Amino acid sequence: MPDVYCPICFELVEDKRVFCETCGQFIHENAPADSREWDSRPPDLTPVAPAATEAPVVINLPDEHMPDASPDEAPSDESDSAPAP
Predict the structure, then answer these.
(1) pTM for the full model?
(2) What is the enclosing helix (H) or strand (E) of 79?
(3) Cβ–Cβ < 8 Å for 30, 18
């Protein structure tokens, strides 16, 4: 096996060492191969249905409190509180 040098401190790493003894850098060339299967999930996964969404909340405001109502159309408080002659 050829000599393996640390990519950070460039020290010679002993055979089979996964980490550099000088700086602690991970040495990929000496790492063991992963023996696990690529996808370990069972192949017969059933699809999950999306969660049900709730209906949006609707608030009905009187016309005088609507933002696009002009001030001339809104009833004034003075006319409601004045006594009738």
Answers:
(1) 0.36
(2) helix 77-81
(3) yes
